[in-house]
Amino acid sequence: MLAATVDHDDVSAGITAQVPYWVAVLTPEERSFGTRRTDPRIDTVDSSVVSEISTQWAGSEHPSFATLLAVLAATVGAWQSDRCRSCTSGVLVDIAANPDIGTCSDGSALFPVRLPTTGHTDTLVAEVRRRVAAAPNDGTDFAEAKYTFGSPALARKAGAQIAFLGTAGTSATPLSDADEALHHSLTVRYDVSEIDGVTTVDAEFRWNSRIFTRSDVDDFERFWEKTLSAFA
What is the pLDDT of residue 180? Predict the structure, then answer.
């Protein structure tokens, strides 16, 4: 029996058809985060600092990926508003298209999703879940749509400045190698654990220290804890 073949033109057409969706997700472009300016030509792992925070979760069930992604979006919205910087278009976040294989060094296994930053907690979680599910082919074609089959309109769009890569400390989402340059201004990983009936959410934040001050970090972590408690 002959093996089934896939027509390259059909694949190309299918991915090209996704371009308008991705252009819409990436529009408008994000304002710069933090209080400093950065230069991608010189940003390296040496430009980053990692902070960790452990917060007790009071909910009856462990928080889902969608819940914690909504917490991140709401935290960014509150943090930006505190700095008198509007976030009316939502926040753009890169997430893993396939958490089982992690991410490539160039971020090619990620896809962007634009998330709401305000609203009732249940509504936010439902909307986050809907927007993640709306990505064509689970987001796995984004890199090809942008870099291989994409249009100039998509190629010119800047990507997300924040990455949410799932569980901290797993082999699927390892910390960046020493030689790997920074690809996001802020990278967030989490771990949910339960000990003696007490559930905690451990969050790991990797910051571009060329962009964020210590005050930025402290304020963001304060908003993260406050927002996480509101979703429990």
Answer: 65
In the chain, DSSP finds a helix count (H) and a strand count (E) of: 7, 6
Query: In which region does residue 139 sit, left (phi positive, over 0), alpha (psi from -120 to 50) or beta (all else)?
Result: left
Strands (E) located in 147-197:
162-167, 186-195
Segments of the chain with pLDDT less than 70: 1-11, 98-108, 150, 167-180
Nearest to 208 by CA among 19, 23, 5, 36: 36
**Does residue 61 sit in helix, strand or coil?**
coil
The distance from CA 213 to its chain's CA centroid, rounded to whole angstroms, is 21
Report pTM: 0.86
Q: Are 63 and 203 in contact (CB under 8 A)?
A: no
| 165: Cβ contacts below 8 Å, ≥ 6 apart | 95, 96, 102, 103, 173, 187, 188, 189
User: pLDDT at position 89, please?
Assistant: 86
Say if residue 160 is exposed, middle or buried (CB neighbours under 10 Å; 0-12, 13-18, 19+): buried
C-alpha 196/C-alpha 232 separation (Å) is 18
Helix (H) or strand (E) holding 115: strand 110-115
pLDDT at 108: 55
The Cα–Cα gap between 11 and 99 comes to 23
